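Morning. Coffee machine broken again, so started the prediction first thing and wrote up yesterday's gels while waiting. Chain of 468 residues, entered below exactly as on the submission form.
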Amino acid sequence: MPRSLVIVALLLIASPAFAQSAKPALRAGAFAQDVTPEKFPISVNGGLADRLAKSANDPLHARCLVLDDGKTKLAIVVVDSCMIPKELMDAAKAIAEKKTGIPAGNMLISATHTHTAPTVGGVFQSDPDSGYIAFLTEKIAAGIEKAHGNLGPAKAAWVVGSEPNQVFNRRWKMKDGVLNPDPFGGTSDKAKTNPGRLSPDIVEPVGPTDPSVTVLSLRTADDKPLALFANYSLHYVGDLPALSADYFGVFAEVIGQKLKAGPGFVAMMSNGTSGDVNNVNFKEAAAKTKPGERCRLVAEAVADAAMKALEKAEYHSDVQLQSAGTIIELPVRKPTPDEVKRAEGILEKAKGRELKGFEEVYARETAKLTAYPDTVKVPLQVFRVGDLAIASIPCEVFTEIGLSLKKTSPFKPTCVVSLANGYFGYLPTPAQHALGGYETWRARSSFLGVKSSEEIEKGLGALLKQLK
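Came back before lunch.
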């Protein structure tokens, strides 16, 4: 090529017009940060009564993925925790932002909802361990920093598989005339959560399930497995002792094996919209299994669905990244003076001992809610990774909400991550609130206004359209 043409070519490459037309070149980095507590015993979330763990069955992690298209950086973190308060997540984001330059608004941190993790959010009789809160905050930030340090050329694919056999709606319509008491002295609930296997009083589930297994797969420039983000709408499994990452951790292990990935590979399973869905088929008797056997069965099945979907994956190195977020103000369902008085009487009778049963435990929840504000500010967030949209809600979201968002989203596919960027309790629809049941009972685990799901869907719908 003549010297004059070489100079012209170099000038074109350096020109703003050429730079704007150049396709984004994706980079990705991942890191699995161990967040297993260093001190035992430790309080465990996930039950009406507090439990103390004396050991860990398997490691807990904050699994971190950082993406960069040359203009925008995103961080996605999935933490083996039952629920994480917004304040803890915000603190971790602030540290990570200083270390990496990634804007806090471009970070998505979610909890898996394993029920065998240290308490960091106070619910029922489990209170946070202040030492572990500080430890987890630093570890999440460190994980993001390490993932950012691992950035390298990459390509991405997004696919959706299906595994319908591991999800069952846990809220059931009961036969006419069956009393269904709540903790507040009422018997008008029409739905019962976890009614018991083979119960003669059950009629049918009152909500759907979502079998979708959404997968974002990252490979290196030379086509080696780098990281995998998945989303499935299953509450948890719960058959592993002590502290455990539950099936979420087993999935990360299994999918790596199926992909024949190297030691630096990081997989993560986020919780979809599973506020009313678990792994129990109430129409069948329970099978006899050993501890951890059920977790592995579920993980294998979901990983197989992901692998089948990946057979059709098309990888792209020119992937556009975007982020949008908003904060909406939602009402809090506060107890009335009469309800507070009733709760105080129940607590007085139980004074000096551990609370037992729904009535006593929810009396304590009623007293705790008196200190809550009348409204709360709830963060909503949407990421775009190529054609994939990842919507985030800081609640235990009912499945029909996720299905609705997927149907109306301009992005195909779209997945919804629950317990993301904070914790604001269960999120039923107004129709499910009318049916009553555990997930609707007013407590620190369920306190948003009855129509809050409609406001959240509206807010996320606007964010999705904004990115499209």
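DSSP finds eleven helices and 21 strands in the chain. Going to sketch it on the whiteboard this afternoon.
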